[in-house]
Amino acid sequence: MNLNRIVLKWGGSILLLFLIVLIPTGFILHTIYSGLYYNDKEEEINDLSSRYANAMKSVQDRDILQMFVTLSGFTNNEVYIVDKDGMIVADSGIAGIVAGEKIKANELATLKKGEAVDKEYHFLPSTERFLVSGKPIFNEDSFEGGMFVMSSLDAIDQSLTQVKLLVILSGIVAFMIASGFIFVLSRKLSAPLLEMEKATRKISRGHLQTRVNISSDDEIGHLAAAINDLAVELERYRSNRQEFFATISHELRTPITYLEGYANVLKNELYETEEEKKKYLSIISDETKRLVRLINDLFELAKAEEEQLTLEKELVDVRKIIDGVIVKVSLKAEEKGLNIEKNLTKHTQLVQGDQQRMEQIFINLLENAIQYTESGKIKVDLHEISSNQVKVTISDTGMGIPDEEIPFIFERFHRVEKSRSRDFGGTGLGLSIVKKLVEMQNGTIHVKSTLGKGTTFEVIFPTADKTSLS
Ligand code: ADP
């Protein structure tokens, strides 16, 4: 039998516990039962011996002695009577008690003092034990002898043996039932654990389709469900990663192909005019810039996704950050003839965030707004929307995003009409980085857009908890 360790551990401990309870219980039962019975007997013979001894005045009359012997027979007890010298003068015929013999000197001395003799009597080789109560017989003040009443402990011994047997037997039966029960229970418990162990090992070897087939609504079932969830998550992660690498290599290959192509044109002097040469050089320069940006963005995103981007959080004034960002991007906006209109509430509460990352978020959003807007204006709003939230709105009058694209806009490499973003030199990574950065600073980001009319990005940050300000 393949006893695995959990069965041994569980079964062993429960059985041990069981024995720890059973053995003292049997012992206590035995002690209580025998104690009760013993006390009863003791009281009975004490009472009888006292009454008999009080009823006797002398031990001379044989008939009276015989009468007491007969009387004790009615109560299922035995008696023997001794005279003042301690010699047995009458008895009901118990083995070892012989008329004419003397009782022990110390017993006689006790009786003479007017005290009772209590003892147990056992005459070998008989197995029968007796409880003995001896009382002195006095006539006025003179000591006449002693009356001993004996009661056999045979019945109690027998029933105690029976009780003991019963306790042991029920113990053995209970022990066997419990062992069987524990064994079945432990097997039932360990079987799913073994199955889960096998499944997790398979998953760790890369078989991510492996699932655990346990659906019980208890801790084991929940653990199995958690393992299955983990496998699903790993599968999704693996397929995401594959897709991610496929996209990266595609994204990297495109500018490199351009670079290679135009570099060859220049190397082999396959151009006709100086102007043409300049055009090719400027394409090479643009594509190099795009490649650098792509690599930087990828690095940034990878760090963010692996949660390795460390933020240096402090209390920041979002208004000041936006002011600075607008100054930075205004040249680009002017080049396109776009006006940036700002409407910033003067004193908004501070936000717990990373100054530089915060800047990065708004630069990205503003650069996008400038990039995808040909005419009109860009508006930046900042105000508190509740006592503990600030909202930044960046809206433009640009080309907008089609409704069906909006759910995917924050996914990496997602570009609306692939050619559109390429024309603008985008990488398709900006918004996914922005979203990560916003979330890492406990904020949320939403987009509303109408194709051909414009786009609005809303970023909401919780303001710093006043109690945390130090
Ligand atoms: P990219 O580097 O290509 O701009 P982003 O992740 O920043 O990548 O943006 C993803 C796509 O979302 C872009 O390709 C663009 O089509 C669209 N987009 C982003 N911002 C705007 C905007 N303000 N107006 C219109 N389209 C936008």
Automatic annotation (TrEMBL):
InterPro entries hit by this protein: HAMP_dom, HATPase_C_sf, HATPase_dom, His_kinase_dom, HisK_dim/P_dom, HisK_dim/P_sf, Sensor_HK_Regulatory, Sig_transdc_His_kin-like_C
Localization: Cell membrane
Domain HAMP residue range list: 187-239
Stretch forming the signal peptide: none
EC number, UniProt record: 2.7.13.3
Pfam families, A to Z: HAMP (PF00672), HATPase_c (PF02518), HisKA (PF00512)
Protein name: histidine kinase
A GO term, aspect molecular function: phosphorelay sensor kinase activity
SMART domains found in the cross-reference section: HAMP, HATPase_c, HisKA
Keyword match Cell inner membrane: no
Chief subcellular location: membrane
CDD domains: HAMP (cd06225), HATPase_EvgS-ArcB-TorS-like (cd16922), HisKA (cd00082)
Reactions the enzyme catalyzes: ATP + protein L-histidine = ADP + protein N-phospho-L-histidine
Coiled-coil stretches noted in the UniProt entry, renumbered to this chain: none
GO cellular component terms listed in the entry, alphabetical order: plasma membrane
PANTHER family cross-referenced by the UniProt entry: HISTIDINE KINASE 1, TWO-COMPONENT HISTIDINE KINASE
Membrane topology of the entry: Multi-pass membrane protein
Keyword terms of this UniProt record: ATP-binding, Cell membrane, Kinase, Membrane, Nucleotide-binding, Phosphoprotein, Transferase, Transmembrane, Transmembrane helix, Two-component regulatory system
Membrane-traversing stretches: 12-33, 165-186
Occurrences of domain Histidine kinase (ranges): 247-465
